[in-house]
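[09:14] KT: can someone run the structure on this one? pasting the chain below
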Amino acid sequence: MPDAVALRNSATAWGALAKLFHWLSAALVLFLVGYGFWMTHLLERAGRLTHYQWHSVIGWYLLALLALRLAWRAFNPAPPLPTELPRWERATAYTAHWALYALMFVVSISGWMVADTFRQPIEATLFGVIPVPHLVDASYRRTGA
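[09:31] RB: done, structure tokens below
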């Protein structure tokens, strides 16, 4: 009988949930990069804002997934790196890993802020229930300044 799939990380391997978070995040990031490039190169026409809306909504879901991923990691530590790795490689791997997390958050938050600067800010709810608040004050649009 095959071994059961471990949800949690072990001392030697990543668990199934960590792997799922990883691959979902990777797929969403790659999709958002490609879709973002494509949508910004569309000719001006009706419906263009719809693509920006979809891009924003998927970006908010990615941000929620990243928060869940970090919460899971806080309670389920990563397997240690091999002890035979030189110290500089271990430090570089650790730094690069956290730099990627930071980059994903910075890009997501900056995209969220840009979505709030449109003449007609993008409105959305996550999971059909949680309203996405605006990070940028839109009062300048009402005053005409």
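[09:33] KT: thanks! The chain has a mean pLDDT of 87.
[09:34] RB: yep, looked fine to me
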